[in-house]
Amino acid sequence: MLEPSKSIDSSGMDEFGYTQTLDRSIGKFASFAAGVSYISILTGVFQLFYFGFSMAGPAYAWSWPIVFVGQLMVALCFAELAGRYPVAGSVYNWAKRLASGTSAWLAGWLLLSSIMALGSVALALQLTLPQLWSGFQFVGDGTGPFDFAMNGVVLATIMITISTLINAFGVKLMTRINSVGVFVELVAAVLLILALGWHVVRGPEVFFDTTGFGEGHDLGFFGVFLIGAMASGYVMYGFDTASSLGEETKDPKRTAPKAILRAVTASFLLGGLILLFGILAAPDLTDPKIGSADGGLQHIVLSVLGGPFGKAFLVCIVVAVVVCTLSVHAAAIRMMFAMARDNNLPFSRQLSKVDPVRRTPTVAAIVIGALAVMPLLINVMQPAIFTILSSISIVLIYLSYLLVTAPMLRNRLLGRWPGENSDAGFSMGKWGLPVNILAVLWGAAMTVNLIWPRPEIYNSVPPFEWYLQWGGVIFVAAVTAGGALLYRLKIRHQTGVLAEHAAAVAAHPSSGPGGEEAPAVAAGLEAKVP
User: Fold this and answer.
1) Architecture of domain 28-497
2) Which residues neighbour 352 within 8 Å (Cβ) at sequence distance 6 or greater?
3) What is the pLDDT of residues 6-49, one digit of tens each?
4) Percent of the chain with pLDDT over 90
5) Mean pLDDT across the stretch 316-325?
6) Contacts for 86 with CB less than 8 Å, ≥ 6 apart
7) Which of 85, 104, 15 is nearest to 492 (CA)?
8) Alpha-carbon distance 333 to 330, whole Å?
9) Domain boundaries, the chain
């Protein structure tokens, strides 16, 4: 890896082979807010509560602390990496310093699936806005066979368009809106916890009641609990966003690791308490609306708190969905930008272009917005396929995390992981190895659980076809194998930092093919941690 330059780039980006082109303006709270808004407990918990509850009943809530402990192991590994390599597209850039070029490219390629997650997040508006005001049901009256799905696509498209404009305008505007939104979300979460706690009508013994759930399933309650646990697994990821914005963060080696750990911990505490008191305060846990997509936790809040207060909290959920969309969009932009400036994507020069005034990858913002809207159209006539694609995007994200934690563990076992480093912003010290082992085991177990071809996830509505149920396995295999072949046969032959992004100390004096690109080989995908 390149030795840090002492004179050329005061931002420290030359240490990684790049020149500083993005706007370094993000402070401590904004960095923390980026991670919190991506996880977005009010978005995820309210969007997926009905699914977890319908599968395993009140006892599904135990999946929340289990998922937290597993994801905390991953977050600790990421914090250690963020304290050393605070670079845009963090997972991709970390992988290229820990593993081979193929593994690194795959990590970035798989994490770009968050473009699909962007559409899923924006669709959450359909679960809340029409409950706030019937006027938000633009398509029909909600009773038609396609009213719900089509209206969701309309709302999601509007949201993604707004997110594209904000992200394209610049990181300062995005982080200001995001920070205000996260502040509102955190205050609302605390007030909601207090309000639900005040209306508790039953004791905690309900969390040990599994009556009726799991009957007829091959694995009994454990089988349906594993399915319900996906509702928690679908929420508690994306904490790496704080590090993906590292190039735009002040003092990133110290700020980003703290932001990662604070984001995942705050989300666990607040989300867990909302789940706890929401179930304890529900007037009637046998109400079928609690386990339906058009009811869920929103229905509990409206039933418990009543008109004005209940709707006020639903407004806060809408705010959470908005900032979550902004954050997911921002993270995908940084990943696309990071891979493109290494000439690792088609049209890399255009995708890595940074607006000279706004200092943000405007083209990448627009492309990701357009790509996120296109799959939404599938949701209108065949929501089962979109559900499969949305689930797959989460699987691919967990796989990309594994492509960091697994080679990180390998480096530790081979004695290649650097010890205490005064320049590192965070270190686990002697706890690094056991935490890393747990992170890999957890990531592998969660990936298997998420990709398991269950009809409840991958073929829940007609038509009931085998290829839909196995869609997750088939699609993940195709995307992974196809990506690996694309890199090995084509992309790797053009890899090299584009001249306009290369640090002066890394730039090669000669041009690449056609005289267009000057590769900075020292900063390419083969760089390793000594």
Assistant:
1) Up-down Bundle (1.20)
2) 337, 340, 341, 361, 364, 498, 500, 501
3) 334 446 788 888 999 999 999 999 999 999 999 998 888 988 89
4) 61
5) 93
6) 243, 246, 247, 249, 252, 253, 256, 425
7) 104
8) 5
9) 28-497
